[in-house]
Amino acid sequence: MNRFWLGSFLILCACGAVTSQPKVTVEEDEWVSPDDGDILGIVVTPDLVIVPVGSSIQLEALGLKDTRETISLTDAVAWASSDALVATISNDLGQEGMLVGESAGVTTISADFGGLGSAPARITVTDAGLERLAITPGALTVGLWDTVQLSAEATFSDGSSSDASSQVRWITGDGSVLQLSGSGELEATGLGATTVRAEWNGVASESVDVEVVTSVDASSADLYFDWVSGVIDDGIFEVMVSIHNDSDAPVYDIWLDLFVDPDYTPGYGDWPDWYHQVEYLGPNESTTVVMSASTSASVHTYALLLDSLQMVPETNESNNLYEGSTDDFVGSGGGGSDLLPNLEISYVGGVSGLEETEYWVDVTNNGEGSSSSFYVDVFHDLDESEEPLSFADGDAYQFFDGGLAAGQTEYITLFVDATCDACGAWVVVDIYDMVEESNESDNSRFYAGP
Question: Could you give the 3-state DSSP secondary structure of residue 35?
Answer without folding.
Answer: helix
